[in-house]
Design brief:
By secondary structure, the chain is mainly α. Helices cover 74% and strands 0% of the residues. α3 runs antiparallel to α4 and α4 runs antiparallel to α5.
Length: 172
């Protein structure tokens, strides 16, 4: 069962980060505007503008291969934790104003819904990480438990997802 859960969670996280990265790339100016509308300083928005998308793409790459999946799970958990903590601070009125939420389909979420959504994925992520770490080293496959065709399946899924987002973007 653990051999099914961990790759499934990694796949779901891959889709989540693919959606996040692609939606930012398709509307880079909107993403930049949303960052500058947030309550943190503009110098931090500048850093996030140039590091967040590459970090999401790196997360996708690491999660896609069994040998790097643990590093991908760690990076994914870090990104999800930071964003979830930011959402919690927004909801706790840590700043004087509440900024608008993020772009993409998630912009229809309230901050509370966004917190639940991110917390759910963070719990999934930590579960997969726990399974990965608790698995004895001798049972972790050196070549990976996935057959090459599964990696191709992930790539095809991502291509389909990118095409879907591009069509949706051009339709609006």
């Amino acid at each position: 069962m653990k051999n099914i859960i961990r790759p499934l969670i990694a796949f779901l996280l891959t889709l989540l980060f693919a959606y996040a990265a692609v939606s930012k790339l398709l509307s880079l100016r909107d993403f930049q505007g949303e960052l500058y509308n947030q309550t943190f300083p503009h110098w931090l928005a500048d850093i996030l503008l140039y590091t967040l998308i590459p970090a999401e793409l790196l997360t996708i790459a690491l999660l896609s291969f069994p040998r790097s999946q643990q590093a991908g799970l760690l990076l994914s958990a870090g990104l999800l934790f930071l964003f979830t903590a930011y959402i919690a601070l927004v909801l706790l009125r840590f700043w004087d104003r509440v900024p608008c939420s993020c772009g993409g389909i998630l912009n229809h979420f309230s901050w509370g819904t966004h917190l639940v959504f991110n917390s759910f994925f963070l719990i999934l992520n930590l579960t997969a990480l726990f399974i990965q770490i608790s698995q004895p080293v001798s049972t972790i496959p050196q070549g990976g438990s996935r057959k090459p065709r599964n990696r191709v399946g992930i790539i095809h899924s991502l291509k389909f997802f990118v095409r879907f987002l591009a069509k949706k973007r051009s339709a609006s």
